[in-house]
Design a protein that fits this description.
With 382 residues, the protein is α/β, with parallel strands linked by helices. It contains 17 helices and 14 strands.
Length: 382
């Protein structure tokens, strides 16, 4: 198994504050393998009947553990998972726990106690830059095409049947168990269309007819995909000016491999790289910040800034994603800064080795690689 040091360090940091970590993420993103590579850990698979019986009396189980570190994998399979974690947090702080599930919603549907103040949530995303180093395969083209689910990424050849197998398991084990939807064809058709149009502005009415459902049902489907981390809904940054887009979100598929699969790309062309790089940057920002509070900006002249963050004293940080720095045009960024003069501006490009700054009509723009961008936006000074 491969040690994913970034995530190991995150778990260790959380344990310094609280004894219970709730590790979430989509299926096959690597939660189980990550937990099993933690040092000095005892692993319990809650899908096994004998393990569930072992935890029938939470206090007796925790007494038997005594102290140390344990993994409670797929904890939402327990009849009352919150009871076990609440008792552990309140009365057994010497036991450090990682509890996992396919999504936060998968646990909360059974949680009779929200465990506020007792657990810290950690979201395991598809592979980020540091993971590529750990996997000893720093090949961004391979990562973009195969995606960031470890078993898919590790395949030498593109594992196309595995993408459909994942989609079928997602329907059977996540959607059916959590939401009891009836129209499999409609939901899966919607998922395919969203992935194929990933990164675009979302309009529910465009999906209703091909999916043979109402506009309201489409909105419900989107909420389900967002809740289970299969899509990211990026909402507009706006002060409700008449010239701005204020309501229509952009929707991104959770993983570049699935975007490629549903677009029918088995090889990458040069013109495909910019869109996929934008997805990769979004995944990295979300993993590092552990936040989905990311926006985009667009005006009615269709000038657009890819991502806007507001973490630094509420001053908007503008981020443009370009596969090559030479492909950057300042037009959209200048239009944005005419409306919002204060805040930093970044162009994050794959071919920038060393950061540099350029001036456009008095606007300073920093050209950075992805590692430098993360260091800048995650600086403790912010």
């Amino acid at each position: 198994m491969i040690d994913r040091q970034f995530w190991h360090n995150r778990i260790e940091t959380v344990w310094e504050r609280r004894s219970v970590v709730w590790l979430s993420g989509v299926r096959r993103v690597g939660k189980t393998c990550l937990c099993q590579t933690l040092p000095n850990i005892e692993y319990f698979d809650c899908e096994l009947p004998r393990v569930r019986r072992l935890m029938g009396d939470p206090q007796e189980f925790l007494d038997s553990v005594g102290s140390g570190r344990i993994v409670l994998d797929e904890i939402h399979r327990l009849p009352n998972p919150s009871e076990l974690l609440k008792i552990a947090a309140d009365h057994y702080p010497q036991i450090q726990i990682v509890a996992t599930g396919s999504s936060m919603l998968g646990a909360s549907a059974k949680f009779r106690d929200t465990l506020v103040g007792r657990k810290t949530e950690l979201w395991l995303t598809p592979l980020i830059t540091t993971d590529l180093n750990d996997f000893n395969r720093v090949d961004i083209h391979h990562r973009l095409l195969h995606g960031g689910l470890p078993p898919f990424f590790l395949e030498t050849e593109l594992p196309e049947p595995d993408f459909q197998e994942w989609a079928d398991a997602y329907w059977a084990k996540d959607i059916q168990e959590l939401f009891r939807l009836e129209r499999r064809h409609s939901f899966q058709k919607f998922t395919e269309l969203v992935m194929a149009q990933s990164g675009g502005v979302f309009e529910a009415t465009r999906f209703a007819r091909p999916c043979e459902v109402s506009r309201g049902t489409i909105s419900n489907y989107l909420s389900i995909l967002e809740a289970t981390f299969v899509v990211h809904v990026i909402r507009p940054f706006s002060s409700r000016r008449a010239t701005e887009i204020i309501a229509a979100p952009k929707v991104y598929g959770f993983d570049t491999g699935f975007v490629c699969y549903y677009r029918g790309w088995s090889q990458l062309r040069q013109e495909d790289l910019g869109l996929l790089w934008e997805h990769f940057v979004l995944n990295e920002i979300m993993a590092q910040t552990q936040s989905r509070e990311i926006h985009y900006w667009r005006n009615k002249r269709e000038l657009e800034v890819d991502f806007v963050l507001t973490r630094a004293r509420n001053l908007p940080i503008a981020i443009e994603c370009k596969w090559s720095a030479s492909g950057f045009s300042p037009r959209a960024l200048l239009a944005f800064r005419r409306q919002y003069p204060e805040g930093e501006n970044f162009v994050v490009a794959n071919d920038v080795d060393r950061a540099f700054t350029s001036n456009y009509n008095g606007i300073q723009v920093k050209f950075v690689n992805l590692g430098t961008l993360i260091a800048e936006i995650c600086s403790p000074a912010r």
